[in-house]
Amino acid sequence: MTIDSDDICPVILLKVLRAFKEAKDKDEIIVKSKWQAVVQELDKWCRETGNEYLGWNKDGEKYVVRIRVNKGE
């Protein structure tokens, strides 16, 4: 599942939460954003929620963050 958004971080986090609700255990969520803060915010979110932060890279002007869903199923 990929989220490609130029919204500000709070809006991106809401989109991640929606994607998380739809995702199955071990699914991967990819977030692409021009906002650098998304890297730190999603790392923090993963630590707080028990999901796996797989890292990030830069693709042109966008930061690409990968998350693995851990629903404990």
Automatic annotation (TrEMBL):
The lineage of its organism: Archaea, Thermoproteota, Thermoprotei, Sulfolobales, Sulfolobaceae. It comes from the Archaea. Gene3D superfamilies: TusA-like domain. SUPFAM superfamilies: SirA-like. This is UPF0033 domain-containing protein. Residues 7-68 form the UPF0033 domain. It comes from Sulfolobus acidocaldarius.
